[in-house]
């Protein structure tokens, strides 16, 4: 479904992703791990066409279509859904307004009764007060509430590809369980492909990945099964990555980024 070959991504003319190849088939869950600052969020933002994050080399295809030529709206319309590490607030636009607009296809009016019913059902499911339906998107919400609010969007929009960037950051243990379990429920129901970024096996114990990749120096330097995440958590990145024998220069750079 998503096929990246020798991808290069630049931010502000700095090459952050240097040679990344990764294929995610329909229904597969892939986790990317790696020390802070290696470019995990950069990859997600480039995939979603965040301004300033540019593909400068390689190929990136979404269901066979050149993703580099698609806009953020095009990509969303193709049912790719992204939860960023820090979901932004959009003052003055409520969840309901945005969702109604997003769900309106070819100007056809949606069934407002069914829409309201679905909103309420989903809020109950993810332990979000009903009042959130009419709140401005993420505005005045805590870190945990923002993640749940994004999940509310996910359930409503019914995507088939999820990009989840450190959804566990800023969540307490209970909220983490609610968020991760809700994503897993969604997976069981709809089998989307998932690209998940995390540092913690806690999340991957619930959202079980088929593959775990380590990103370092702009490339995927190691790929394994879920067990690789456990090894990283136990031994740290340095020791795990160390199997590749980094140069002294690379080690310095790596340590600075920790
Ligand atoms: N908008 C930006 N402007 C300048 N530098 C950026 C920007 N976004 C990311 N970077 C840089 O790109 C590198 C990778 O950042 P990021 O993708 O956020 O790392 P990660 O998510 O792996 O922790 C860092 O050196 C960061 O400073
Ligand atoms: Mg990040």
Helix-strand layout with pairing:
Elements: E1 2-11, E2 14-24, E3 29-33, H1 40-47, E4 53-62, E5 65-66, H2 72-77, E6 80-83, E7 90-94, H3 95-103, H4 112-125, E8 136-137, H5 143-157, E9 161-165, H6 173-190, E10 193-197, H7 201-206, E11 211-216, E12 219-224, H8 226-242, H9 248-257
Parallel strand pairs: 3-10, 3-11, 6-9, 9-10
Antiparallel strand pairs: 1-2, 1-4, 4-5, 7-8, 11-12
The structure holds adenosine-5'-diphosphate and magnesium ion (MG).
Strand content: 25-35%
* Topology, number of strands: 12
- SSE-based structural type: alpha/beta
Instruction: Examine the coordinates and then state which fold CATH places here, giving the name of the CATH topology.
Output: Rossmann fold
CATH superfamily annotation: P-loop containing nucleotide triphosphate hydrolases
* Beginning-to-end CA distance, first to last residue: 33 Å
DSSP helical segment count: 9
**Sheet having the most strands:** 6 strands, mixed
- Identify the CATH architecture: 3-Layer(aba) Sandwich
What is the rounded Rg?
19 Å
Order of helices and strands: EEEHEEHEEHHEHEHEHEEHH
What are the distinct ligands in this entry?
Answer: adenosine-5'-diphosphate, magnesium ion
Description:
This protein has 258 residues and is α/β, with parallel strands linked by helices. It has one domain: Rossmann fold, CATH 3.40.50. Helices cover 40% and strands 28% of the residues. It contains 9 helices and 12 strands. The protein has a 6-stranded mixed sheet, sandwiched between helices. A 4-stranded antiparallel sheet has the order 2-1-4-5. It binds adenosine-5'-diphosphate and magnesium ion. Magnesium ion binds next to helix 1. Residues 40-41, 85, 165-166 line the site of magnesium ion.
């Amino acid at each position: 479904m998503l096929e990246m070959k020798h991808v290069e991504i630049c931010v502000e003319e700095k090459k952050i992703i240097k040679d990344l190849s990764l294929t995610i088939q329909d229904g597969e869950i892939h986790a990317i791990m790696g020390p802070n600052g290696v470019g995990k969020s950069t990859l997600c933002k480039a995939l979603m066409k965040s301004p300033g994050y540019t593909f400068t080399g390689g190929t990136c295809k979404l269901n066979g279509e050149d993703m580099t030529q698609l806009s953020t709206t095009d990509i969303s319309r193709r049912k790719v859904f992204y939860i960023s590490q820090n979901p932004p607030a959009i003052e003055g636009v409520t969840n309901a307004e945005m969702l109604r607009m997003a769900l309106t296809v070819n100007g056809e009016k949606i069934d407002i009764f069914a829409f309201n019913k679905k909103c309420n059902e989903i809020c109950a499911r993810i332990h979000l007060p009903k009042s959130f339906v009419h709140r401005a998107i993420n505005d005045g919400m805590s870190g945990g509430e923002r993640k749940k609010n994004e999940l509310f969007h996910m359930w409503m929009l019914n995507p088939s590809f999820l990009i989840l960037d450190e959804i566990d950051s800023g969540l307490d243990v209970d909220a983490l369980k609610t968020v991760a379990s809700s994503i897993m429920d969604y997976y069981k129901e709809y089998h989307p492909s998932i690209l998940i970024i995390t540092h913690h096996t806690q999340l991957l114990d619930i959202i079980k990945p088929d593959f775990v990749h380590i990103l370092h120096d702009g490339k995927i330097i190691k790929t394994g099964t879920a067990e690789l995440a456990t090894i990283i958590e136990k031994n740290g990145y340095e020791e795990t990555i160390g199997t590749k024998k980094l140069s002294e220069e690379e080690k310095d750079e790596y340590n600075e980024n920790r």
